[in-house]
Amino acid sequence: MKRTAYAFVGVAVLAAALAGCGSSTPSASGGATATTRPVASTQPVAVPKPAGKTVLRMEGALSRHNLGRSLAFDQKTLDAMATNTATIFEPFVKKDIRFTGIPMSDLLTRAGITQSATKVRFHALDDYKVEFKVSDMMAPGVLLATKADGAAIPIGKGGPIRLVFPPDSAPGKNKDLWIWSIDSMTIR
Q: Would you identify the CATH topology of the domain 12-18+53-187?
């Protein structure tokens, strides 16, 4: 995929289940900060069927489904799950951006990935694909971002969903692995 311009790669019950006290903790890297809201339950809350248009579909080695053999999300559900905020240097626009999103470790846990799963493959609306080790996606600070600087990310700027990495992330240092406009994930 040519990347010639920069881009930024109703669920009240769910929102109530995810609500909690926020805390702000600077990262060890010095530049990024993160705010988290802990989830009280150790058992993940089921993801409801999409009430609106499906914007993300997960398939493959997962044990939880809400639409056939898939786990599908509408934008409202993803926004309700977005519990972390981090200011991250965005390498394509060369500035800090405040992203809000779902920790990938939380998302994969909610999906019930199987113990045999080793890879997560992301697919974008423009057919760009990248693949990561599950362990890289479970690392602290990796977010499936739904907002940039407090606003929804438009498709023209890489939205509505993109993957962002903390400054110390080994995969995040490779700009070819940054993916935006994500529409599906396959767990293998």
A: Sulfite Oxidase; Chain A, domain 2 (3.90.420)
**% of the chain beyond a pLDDT of 90:** 74
Exposed/middle/buried for 63, CB within 10 Å: 0-12, 13-18, 19+?
exposed
* Residues 46, 57: Cα–Cα separation, whole Å: 15
Alpha-helix runs per DSSP H in 83-182: 104-111, 134-137
Domain ranges of the chain: 12-18+53-187
Cα 19 from Cα 108, distance rounded (Å): 19
The amino acid that residue 160 corresponds to is P
- Over the stretch 103-120, which tens digit does the pLDDT of each residue have? 999 999 999 999 999 999
- Own/partner pairs, 67-76, CB within 8 angstroms, 24+ separation: 71/47, 71/111, 73/47, 74/50, 75/146, 75/152, 75/160, 76/10, 76/11, 76/51, 76/52
First to last CA, the chain: 23
From CA 114, how far away is CA 121, in angstroms rounded?
Answer: 15
∠ Cα 47 143 34 (to 5°): 115
Give the residue carrying structure tokens 């926004």. Answer: 79
